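Exercise 7. Predict the joint structure of the components listed below.
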Amino acid sequence: MAKQMHPPSEKRSIPVGVVGASGYSGAELVRLLIQHPWVDLRCVTSRGHVGEPLAEVFPRLRGIGAADELVFSSPDVSAMVASGIEAVFLALPHGLAAEFALPFLEAGVRVIDLSADFRLDDAALYEEFYGASHPAPRLLEEAVYGCPEIHRDGLAGARIIAAPGCYPTSILLPLVPLLRESLLELDSICTFSMSGVSGAGKKGNIPFLFAECNESVRAYSVPRHRHLSEIEQELGKAAGEAVVISFTPHLIPVTAGIVTTTYAMPKPGACERVGPVLEQAYEKAPFVRLLGSDCPPDSKNVVGTNFIDISWSQDPRTGRLVVMSAEDNLGKGAASQAIQGFNIAFGISETEGILRV
Amino acid sequence: MAKQMHPPSEKRSIPVGVVGASGYSGAELVRLLIQHPWVDLRCVTSRGHVGEPLAEVFPRLRGIGAADELVFSSPDVSAMVASGIEAVFLALPHGLAAEFALPFLEAGVRVIDLSADFRLDDAALYEEFYGASHPAPRLLEEAVYGCPEIHRDGLAGARIIAAPGCYPTSILLPLVPLLRESLLELDSICTFSMSGVSGAGKKGNIPFLFAECNESVRAYSVPRHRHLSEIEQELGKAAGEAVVISFTPHLIPVTAGIVTTTYAMPKPGACERVGPVLEQAYEKAPFVRLLGSDCPPDSKNVVGTNFIDISWSQDPRTGRLVVMSAEDNLGKGAASQAIQGFNIAFGISETEGILRV
Amino acid sequence: MAKQMHPPSEKRSIPVGVVGASGYSGAELVRLLIQHPWVDLRCVTSRGHVGEPLAEVFPRLRGIGAADELVFSSPDVSAMVASGIEAVFLALPHGLAAEFALPFLEAGVRVIDLSADFRLDDAALYEEFYGASHPAPRLLEEAVYGCPEIHRDGLAGARIIAAPGCYPTSILLPLVPLLRESLLELDSICTFSMSGVSGAGKKGNIPFLFAECNESVRAYSVPRHRHLSEIEQELGKAAGEAVVISFTPHLIPVTAGIVTTTYAMPKPGACERVGPVLEQAYEKAPFVRLLGSDCPPDSKNVVGTNFIDISWSQDPRTGRLVVMSAEDNLGKGAASQAIQGFNIAFGISETEGILRV
Amino acid sequence: MAKQMHPPSEKRSIPVGVVGASGYSGAELVRLLIQHPWVDLRCVTSRGHVGEPLAEVFPRLRGIGAADELVFSSPDVSAMVASGIEAVFLALPHGLAAEFALPFLEAGVRVIDLSADFRLDDAALYEEFYGASHPAPRLLEEAVYGCPEIHRDGLAGARIIAAPGCYPTSILLPLVPLLRESLLELDSICTFSMSGVSGAGKKGNIPFLFAECNESVRAYSVPRHRHLSEIEQELGKAAGEAVVISFTPHLIPVTAGIVTTTYAMPKPGACERVGPVLEQAYEKAPFVRLLGSDCPPDSKNVVGTNFIDISWSQDPRTGRLVVMSAEDNLGKGAASQAIQGFNIAFGISETEGILRV
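Solution:
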């Protein structure tokens, strides 16, 4: 019986807020939080929509729980704290997120940040990849990289969760277990990702107009996308030594979804261990679906969910391993993974509110 | 507090089955039923997938409730009855559905049919529009046209529910209250609809290939689509006299979603009553969202849900009323509306399992 | 032998310019003009791209004729006149176009304007629909509404051509011959159009982002779209009396293409004349393709071309006629129709440079 | 003056035919051939459309040249030969193409084959990758692999041209010049491609329905796609030794277009030679557009054309070279490249009929 389990009825709802709720990740957070059985979404902010009812800005949400009562406010930390929230999700541009995190933490509100601000352990690396000095470097040590399948232990009770980036999640989850078991030649990792256009954010930029993206495929940010910083940080932790990889993202005409294909050379004799190592690593991970070998995942099976689907193939001609994954860039790659981390941090069942298709 | 209400805990799960579960409507039924808190989905059938695990045919559903245990069986009524189901959803072509309905009913299993077989009161009308004599005419009288917003009373305890067609739902819900109040000139109704390609079914037909439908818009079934039969039947009931309308469906490159725009001439003085009449009619309808006047609905706000969004405008230049609606052709236009009818028939809260976005 | 006919070899190339060449209509003009056998495209302007090579802004055009040599300049009328152009295409917002038209005309450069500025005969009607007084009312009388199938005679030698709007073209071409022959009840015309997103222009507006338009259908500008002004003007001329119609445009997720479906009540006995009247009207029109009755046109057959495809059906149930058309909103609805008018104005074969698929 | 050059007027039209003209590649051939200034398309065949006018099966082509006169016939070699054709394009499944090629050649008709049947030099390799013995192995030696940028010399006067596959063209054109100059470590080549759905052909297969492919991305044919055979054959010729590569194709929701991204390790000191070598190799190639470094090509700029756009980047972090290309899978990847080969074989200017956007 796999029906969603609900916490005991004495369990209270946790009051939360979302800052930056009008972007794509923010809206996805709101969609999930208003349907989360143990969350009480009290405030949603958006500088551009102050005073507008949530259900007018997002007509899709009308008629669902708190959606009919919430009104966008300005991102006023004091007012949000006064509303009694115990956690805040920040769906803001990098740089800005850290500025908000500090006062919330000081007020005792836990922070789940969807930006890049707390993902890197090293402020210098942040500066190298994001082109600005880190706004709150002393918080970096405390922040937990919020990929529950990798850092589950750190998440329980965490005060600052850095929800991982979309590309990183799709690359890390298939590779981390393999690197932990030293199955791959570290200098052989070549990744290639395709992302839906929502990943570019909800901004009025001409390159992301329908008429520009439709019937179009293109690589971008070649050869050094910012997400490489957190990808290589986490791969390095798994491998126990520095890892440098090739990574090329491509923009494809879907609204949401990321598919990543990675080539890597297994160490001698390691190839047959790939399946078993992944199976063992994710035996108890409700959101990692191992499709078995030679069964390429399809983004349409994960969009709108918190699942990541993984498959792999061995190529006897080249000796290389091919690892493939599919996730929703706004789901497991952003909002629902952030809620997964929140659930764990607050001692709720990991799957609450996000085990749905 | 609009959170989804659950029935009291002593409530049992209702065992059900789905016949024809591999098509688009069938798959949507399965997706919703495995997540329905008061349903126990016991059997799914598909002639083409006998013996295959549900989660292999629909990888999207892996990891969700019964999806990991169900295996497609052949549509064997006796075996399904023996499994203890109390209701069966038929997602079959017209003609075939009626053949299955009879033995299920005889065995005491209630039938929710998604085909056209039980939507018409008159077997002769069926023959006129579907080109074959009705396979079970004596059941027509008992069957309830399963649009809860129109025939709620008939649904409680119903043994045969005819889930409405996708186009009819989108046309009827905005118009029926207006006709009941005699607001429109009956011979003035001109409707245009646009539907996603899933409406054409999951069959290997070249005109519905991606490369044929993408970047393509076209009318079809001009001037007499089969759905006119049930549309005019229900409009006629609302008006108290026969109604004949113009209707042109168009195929557009979206997977799901129907948007309908209707012109009609209000009777003298009736125009200002349109809004109030709709508001009163749907005051307690959780799935009808009235957006107000001059606020055209967008299919992306309803796809994947059981909502229908409705707006209207008055055109002082022509005197005509413009009524617009948006729904998911597989949702409110098929599967989730069928479950809404099932909920009512079984005395469960109407919104169980389908009030979600 | 229907191969493209070339003018005699002594024919010179006509030097032309395009103002506002970076928008969607402007870019389509440039694409066609650089491949037009009797055009010498000398200057392309765009305020936002001054100094940038055409082939960098539009990489698609690289390697084709003048595309490799042209560089965007600022819209400086004197400089353009000095370059020796004999005609200028204006692909500018309404209001701005008229400001440019005047000095070009004074300098002896003929103007083909793709905006709404010269489409209406009546400056008061312009002000009513466009919300501003007309910037050059005295030019309205001279300007020719550049739909060659309707106003061919006026185009020969014309100094100011007002290229028709996209929706108007799709509505007028099927209806004008029927109104000229008094086949339709004038108060019965109800039109419904669906347009690709390029119709919204190349501006950084959030509602036209890929992630907003994809998997979305919606009506807009209900009930009074600006194009009604020119539609009704031209319908009225054809009918010999004022015509008021219902018109609802819808945005659908294709890059280009418009499909229009129109209902109208034929006058008694007129229905059987519809086909013959259309056939006679367009017997010699190389860009109007009559598909016959009951053969709905598909936008994918006309996108990228100057063709408009037309079909019609009679509905014996309602008595209404259903007329359907498909065109490219950037082609027959804008750029290629503008070139068609230019060809005629300059005495070139109407089909030069635009009879292609 | 870059206008398309026409051969001297005494030049005659070459009579040709297309076998298998109803599939996607066949239809694209027909579209281009009816507009080709020096081609007389005399016969088009399709088993499924015998007797149907071309313009009914492909309404897009109506009104263009021979499209209004051609009628589909059955693929009868004798009748086609009797019609006087000098060349035939075969757009047939592999295996079947070779069966047609023989009698045409014996009758003196030159063959341009778009299938895989004549692309491989070695019948054993064909059998290994295509799972059947080669139907006409003795023709393999004579056949020319029809990529003009690689085998221009062999094409002049060729009797059998094997038009290259879509993926191979996209991979070979960026790499062949680099391998000829020994710039790359041969065992380091990792390619990833994304293709539009038309590449799957015009067959009624459920996985290629709109509702299956839309909002979907997936890898397929992992790890050994059939096209690897010709890719590695041609890379090996360029390198002067055997080359084995990794290649993963992905299906993305566009109708047409292929984008390929390749990683390879340059030999020491070779990286700075990449740009100059490509520029020299393609200096006189009218259809290869080098975009320069760090300028990822976009499929929308090449779809509908015979262009292939190429860019490259060096990644100083990994030392790898990233090479990117974009082409139309039905254009440079199939039909227009076949015509390019035909042009050269018949002594016409290479660009006739296909230098268009």
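Discussion. Residues 222 and 315 of chain D are 26 Å apart (CA to CA).
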